[in-house]
Amino acid sequence: xxxxxxxxxxxxxxxxxxxxxxxxxxxxxRPIPDDLWVKCPECGGVMFCEEFEKEYSVCTKCNHHFxxxxxxxxxxxxxxxxxxxxxxxxxxxxxxxxxxxGQKIEKLMEETGLSEAIVTGEARIGGFACMxxxxxxxxxxxxxxxxxxxxxxxxxxxATDRRLPVVLFSASGGARMQEGxxxxxxxxxxxxxxxxxxxxxxxxxSVMTDPTTGGVTASFASLGDVILSExxxxxxxxxxxxxxxxxxxxLPEGFQRAEFLLEHGFLDRIVxxxxxxxxxxxxxxxxxxxxxxxxxxxxxxxxxxxxxxSETTVARVREFFADARHIGLFGVDHDHPPEGAAGPAxxxxxxxxxxxxxxxxxxxxxxxxxIPLIFDDFLELHGDRLFSDDPALCGGIAMFxxxxxxxxxxxxxxxxxxxxxxxxxxxxxxxxxxxxRLMRQAEKFGRPVLCFVDTSGAYCGIGAEExxxxxxxxxxxxxMMDLRTPIVSIVTGEGGSxxxxxxxxxxxxxxLRNAIYSVISPRGFSSILWxxxxxxxxxxxxxxxxxxxxxxFGICDAILPEPDEGAHADPRxxxxxxxxxxxxxxxxxxxxxxxxxxxxxxxxxxxxGMYLE
Length: 613
Ligand SMILES: [Zn+2]
Known about the structure:
Layout: H1 2-14, E1 32-33, E2 37-39, E3 46-48, H2 49-54, H3 70-77, E4 84-86, H4 101-112, E5 118-125, E6 128-135, H5 146-162, E7 166-172, H6 180-199, E8 204-213, H7 214-217, E9 226-229, E10 235-236, H8 240-247, H9 258-263, E11 269-270, H10 276-288, H11 290-297, H12 300-321, H13 352-359, H14 367-374, E12 376-380, E13 393-400, E14 403-410, H15 416-421, H16 429-444, E15 449-455, H17 462-466, H18 469-481, E16 487-496, H19 497-501, E17 508-512, E18 516-518, H20 522-530, H21 536-542, H22 547-552, E19 558-560, H23 571-589, H24 594-606
Parallel strand pairs: 6-7, 7-8, 8-9, 8-10, 9-11, 14-15, 15-16, 16-17, 16-18, 17-19
Antiparallel strand pairs: 1-2, 2-3, 4-5, 5-6, 12-13, 13-14
The chain binds zinc ion (ZN).
């Protein structure tokens, strides 16, 4: 493949193209190859052909990702010799009778060896059968006319019939002008085919490559369950010059690049090209592997699968906690006191006010510390697809004991920099909307949702109100009460107000031993009721906010062990307790038919309340 790539790079270099101008997004920029080395036209860096090819046409000096043609794209990700092309001979006609269009197509066919701007077919990726498509921006800027629209639609229809996932690499200037209104309608047609594939519960991974613009951004490319891109990719609806002309302003550097899209919530991830195939395999494993399918058919199958794992895990965790320092910690799990594990010396629970210092300890583990200790293969997914990506709320797909799960949770920072980036774990509305998007995705694919709660509350500010903080929280409660997949929540530190509850509605709630969960932070409580924020410790002890209190209220189902000195003293031990809880709880919550599960969830909250009448 390396030799073939080099040959193609050379051939294209030899083709008669005008000198590319930096302004033109659609012009192919490619390194000038010699026999042994290539010079990057982006940074002027010189590297060996071999290095350049090993990175799949990425500059090893400046990481510029050069454009690939459709066949290179496909070769790069599919298992060798598995690609079988579909609709190979479909060709364009000239619906408007546009002068010169026919000849232009003929010429491009000859130059590129393609019949049109997209190649579609069936292949295997990491052994998983899927439909794969790749657009080619050499062919009339990868624009979408009848043939591109029809091939994409057929690919999705065929995937729907055969229950296969779709992986589609877009690279396009948009709808094809030369075919007029017929091109515009391809946007609706392809989107309709994606919608049917989606309703059949099937996975669509959209990869936006350089450039993905216009009507393709405004149709199938933006509709993936997961949307990936590469560093520096141009993505946008309107062209830069059109925008600059309309608003009479110069656009900033980096506008409409993949990094900009990620920040604004429209991409799940930016993936280095050499990581594209492993990332696709990871996503396919989480969605269409036998374990994923089993958890999806769920109920009994999941229970069996997880039970197998949990026996070994429980044994491992017990061994871990047999360490003298942790003896007895299991005893505080009211719901499931494990036989024989509880030692004689259970330290008495701390007062709520004493726990405040522990849960605010600068080394208290955050979700990012727990994830690698609890899960395998975590793949973080970003963005609410509406406005932004909120670092205060982290989410993604992971494997828990061989079964795919969706993980969401607040992230507090440790350093000043991380705290400012994550807003001290106080999400904006877009954080809650990202969590909801990922929970909906979990529901579609039948993955349990695991929520980790640690926030003093939702962020208060102008932007948060403008974008509907109240609506975002309400929407999550509304959707989560009725989400057709199990939800397990764990309060690991502070569970502050609606900002916590918005990712904590669940079938089973656990709290770490020193965690608190309250209607408002103790400081807020004392400020509002006593007009004196300094009385927060007094408030904490009055508010009934400990795990023991919440078990009594019937809100918390389990208290999980922490080392005596607090979770930071031994994050591994704390994580092991969470693993043990999850391995016992998941089979239980997954063991009910969906209708029963929703009824139980409704009842769980329905019965909370105290009154006389
Ligand atoms: Zn370079």
